[in-house]
Amino acid sequence: MRNRNFFQIADFRDLLKSQLGRNILTNYLSVVWMGGLSILLIPFYLRFLGPQQWGVVAICMTLQAFFNLLDAGLSQIMPRDVARVAHQPNVRLKIFVIYQRAYIGLALGGFVLGQFSLPWLIENWFGSGKSFAPEAIWAFHLVLLQFLFQFSNNSNIGYWNGMQMQSTANIRQCSFGLIKHLGALSCVYFWRADAIAYLIPFTTIAIIEYLSNLYSIRSSLRESRLDPILWMDYKKLGHEAGVLLVGVLVGMLASQMDRIVLPKYVDVASFGIYVIVANLGLAVMQLQQPLIRAFLPRITQDLEENKKIHSDGLLWE
Questions:
Q1: Which domain holds residue 127?
Q2: In whole angstroms, what is the distance from residue 265 CA to residue 24 CA?
Q3: C-alpha distances out from residue 7 to 3, 20, 25, 129, 149, Å
Q4: pLDDT tens digit string along 203-236?
Q5: In a domain, 2, yes or no
Q6: The whole model's pTM is what?
């Protein structure tokens, strides 16, 4: 029994020393850090902003979550496609550029659609527009700018996940997340207690985060040669992402439907409180995601290596 426990401990330590173990560990630490940071700071935001302004922030978060549904397909397949070509730098660069352009295109589409639809949403959906000051309306426009860069940054995160560099992605996400919250707390405390002051640091840091991550990835690929990208490459990506889109979208809509419907029927302050409670429940339901992020690229790379072994005839030597 003692020997069995010893070997179990040894196996666990070996797992933590491996790339897979580090990815699993940092994935969970990232979830705890980002989720815990948001939960612990909510009382301070409520105290500084008050229920009404926090309700405006909650609606902004709902807007962003709704437009994030545009990523219902790409985020599922980008890590897999990057993992498949992890040892082919030129092909990897091409895959990254294709996905990067796809993410930017979707982000721009969501940004433009959101800006043009805001007047209708405010008038007909968000409390019939009765309780919003002009500053709050500007907050809705600002959160769409944040969405533009935060959504585009998913291509950088997807690349690192596919390369099994999830510790890099997690450290960057946690660091920039901390800076966003520190900036937001400073602005609402020292400057002005409203949604605009909360969102300006988040938007500014989101832009810096996207550009910094993109520069880091591009620097690592500077020795690679970009092969020509054809229309068929985008068509293939659209077809494959579209297959997943319906199923994933239905599931994601189900998890967000309450936030989409409630702003029409409850006041802003009540909606802000509801979002706090809902976030706590949703955080518990995401505990499987760190494992999926860690195992999917690893399984994909192993499958590709096995295919190569079979094709080279090495199994029979």
A1: 51-307
A2: 41
A3: 6, 19, 20, 64, 47
A4: 999 999 999 999 999 999 999 999 999 999 988 8
A5: no
A6: 0.83
